[in-house]
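Archive record
______________

***
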Amino acid sequence: MANNSWRGFKYLLKRYWYFDLPAGLSVFLVALPLCLGIALASGAPVSSGLLAGIVGGLVVPWISGSPLSVSGPAAGLTTVVSSGILLFGNFQIYIWSVLIAGIMQLAIGVFRLGDLARYTPASVIKGMLAAIGILLIGKQIPLVIGLNQPDFWSDDFTRMLSSANYGWQVWENMSMEAAGIGIVSLLLLAAAENPRIKPYFPLPPFLLVVLLGLIYQFVTAKYFPEIALPANLCVSVPTDVLTQWNGIDLNMTPAWNRVLREGAILAILASLETLLCLEAVDKLDPQHRNSPVNREMIAQGVGNIICGWIGALPITAVIVRGAANVEAGAKTRLSSVTHGALLLLSVAFLVRYLNHIPYASLAAILFMTGYKLTKPAIIRSIYKQGFKQFLPFALTILMILIIDLLIGVTVGLLIAIWFVLRDSVQSEFELVHLKAKDSNSYLLSMNANVSFLNKVKLKESLESVPEHAKLDINLSDTRFIDPEVAEVIRDFIPRAQHRHISLSWKGSEEMLSKINGR
């Protein structure tokens, strides 16, 4: 027995060494710049992004049932987080919303409501992500082009248009060195998207961009200080982030109506993004395993409660990290734990180096992340699926850009639901004019399930049958008919007699008795 246990342990250790450890390292190299960059894009302390990554790696995997998904701060939430921080005016107040979102997600998982989110139309989710991608790109432009006053456009690049002298203002506040780093980084990341060039990259593209920025800053600071970047254009992580983190301040009393609203928005969007990631990663899994949705909601809820308590950004399962995990050959959730442990070690021992990373490098990474969410190929694919898919997609994007994210998603959902209801009404029964048989003969065929949604349309169709016609009503395939629909047909019988319409019936005794009200 002892020998079997030892052999089992050796097998697990060998599998970890050859698969999960290298995969965890790969995910760490992708996650580190994203944790920093997402915090930057959200207008939150940079340390909050790193803490979120650590929670996503060291807490969530032990509760989640997903073997390959990886959690952390998500680019898809940057717009919501940044607007929430601006609303409250203080990150320490905003993190109450993160904690509330975690409690809501925990409740979703406990009460097994996670499956409901899977009914959200894909066109609306893709529209939401595309709109976030556009906003994300806009927020990075100031840093990519080297503005040496990052607050110059506190919202996004569109504020530039509100100034009559915007051109000169931008030029006067540009750092040519930072602009050079940003543009070169963008070109490298764009080249990495080319499948013929990507194999020649010695390191993951995100990490390569960060390392090049680091090397530039170290070399110029030591040998050419006149062209080194100023401190306000580089990352600033507190050296005591693990001992002096600023979590929830219990002495602050937030406006609870605002906190609950922001928390609900976060919970909905974080859950949607998580489920979208789970589905994508499960499809990539070579072993074709299925992740339990409600257990994942519990894991995300616990993770966000902790993030809110310690002052970290909200987390979700993240497609970029999950895909990198699969590509690196991970077998179990230990790869995600490894990436979290490496993030913790980097915060503990590498802060000195992290603080030399140029903002322009991170902005280029986020710019490309935003592009991937909204690239033309996605828009073309939705357009090819037809008007019923493209209209909710386009309106979701438009409403998010014009008003806000919650309104945009709500409008997209309503349009998608309207199409579903319209199709349902049209498909549950069919009235056909049998011209080949008799110019005055009609056939009304009912499908398997006829709901109350068909009530109005059915009544209009029956009234359209002309006088002295022959109407055959076929209920042979019907298994369920709503009482309100049965009432419409029952009420039509005396009117048919008055209009000299000859009725004939076909169907089971059960269906015919329901029509007759027995």
In short: Strands lie at 71-73, 315-317, 429-433, 441-446, 449-450, 470-475, 480-481, 502-507. The radius of gyration is 29 Å. The chain is about 65% helix and 5% strand. The longest helix spans residues 2-42.
